[in-house]
């Protein structure tokens, strides 16, 4: 009896030791999510399930608990964007992003950094200076270089994947695509030329050689009916790799809308990026539909909840089927926190928890799909830069 007790004690001590060494790697106590949580189920196939987080909402207990329990990677929804980190020229404010990185470390989560080079959410001092001519294109380039190096250096060693460049490719409705499909109206392309995208990857790589560097965009995994945008990104990234640009992955945002059919080429499009030797990820999944109002967000179509769950399920399945799809991130998890009602009049119900933070059928669909995913190929993750480099 005593021997058994000792054995149990020794085994527990060994388990504790193992747990604490893992915890030390993350800089906090070991964290044990519920065994039926999305993150625990996904871990069995080496997939990270993530969410966008607004750090200030972590003060809300229910929000923080779900963020910690259900997800194994987090993305700051806005707090690493240039507008937020350098609101006044030369003065950085990392407080929101630092808070989230610390939360992630406490809960054994990895962080997706978002985003270094984008035409939106730039500081007013920057866009106004460019518009009124006090910031020349040469100075703009220097400012961007400093922004990328300073931000990547600040978070060095703490970021798993960086969305280095975001939304550079033209949609079918954009009037001035360049011959390779890049949007000729993009702020950065207009001022610095399209070569600036590759430079951003080079600068980020120099500042943190271990972070996985992603190109991130929407409608690039079958959502665009002709698949032209996906083709353009595919050709561009292939060319960049041939030129030795340090790109490690392509992220499809995954902002879907039930009024359009499910993108049936999603798996194939993710796979062909992976076949270039890249990681892939679903980086901002949500599925919007028409709702009664922005507060309650009840779908106007009674069948919508079923279709909504099905779209999430299909998106996850596309990722699971591709071994190099290393993370599946939802763009916030509760409808009352979603960007959708503010951007698409009359739409909402986009997330996997409702406005009262109760799990929706879509949550259950993801949970069930992950539980069934035993046969899916195990991801190579969590890792950082692979042998290709
Ligand atoms: O923080 C300010 C606040 O101080 C101010 O009073 C208020 C007044 O408008 O604005 C607040 O900023 C808002 C910010 O979100 C933080 O809540 C901005 O107006 C609002 O435009 C901004 O929206 C974000 C949007 O990007 C900007 O384009 C969304 O939260 C965010 O979810 C969304 O995320 C993007 C990804 O980064 C890239 N892919 C598409 C995705 C959805 O648009």
Describe the protein.
- By secondary structure, the protein is an alpha/beta fold.
- The chain is 41% helix and 15% strand.
- It has a single domain (9-375), classed as Glycosidases (TIM Barrel), CATH 3.20.20.
- It has helices at residues 2-26, 38-43, 61-70, 82-85, 95-106, 124-131, 137-154, 187-192, 195-207, 228-242, 266-274, 304-320, 340-343, 361-371; strands at 48-53, 73-76, 110-117, 161-166, 212-217, 249-252, 255-257, 279-290, 325-330, 347-348.
- The protein is globular.
- Residues 1-27 have low confidence and may be disordered.
Topology:
Blueprint: H1 2-26, H2 38-43, E1 48-53, H3 61-70, E2 73-76, H4 82-85, H5 95-106, E3 110-117, H6 124-131, H7 137-154, E4 161-166, H8 187-192, H9 195-207, E5 212-217, H10 228-242, E6 249-252, E7 255-257, H11 266-274, E8 279-290, H12 304-320, E9 325-330, H13 340-343, E10 347-348, H14 361-371
Parallel strand pairs: 1-2, 1-9, 2-3, 3-4, 4-5, 5-6, 6-8, 7-8, 8-9
Antiparallel strand pairs: 8-10
Helix pairs in contact: 7-9, 11-12, 12-14
The protein binds ligand G3I.
Residues 77-78, 120-121, 166, 253, 284, 339 line the site of ligand G3I.
State the gist of this model.
It is built from 14 helices and 10 strands.
> Rounded to an integer, what's the Rg over CA atoms?
21 Å
Q: Helical proportion?
A: 40-55%
Number of domains: 1
Give the overall silhouette: globular
Reported for the largest beta sheet, the result is: 8 strands, parallel, barrel
Q: So, CATH architecture?
A: Alpha-Beta Barrel
Structural class: alpha/beta
Mean of all residue-level pLDDT scores: 92
How would you describe the oligomerization state of the chains in this entry?
single chain
CATH H level: which superfamily?
Glycosidases
How many helix segments? 14
What is the CATH class? Alpha Beta
Low-confidence stretches: 1-27
Distance between the termini: 54 Å
N-to-C series of helices and strands: HHEHEHHEHHEHHEHEEHEHEHEH
Strand content: 5-15%
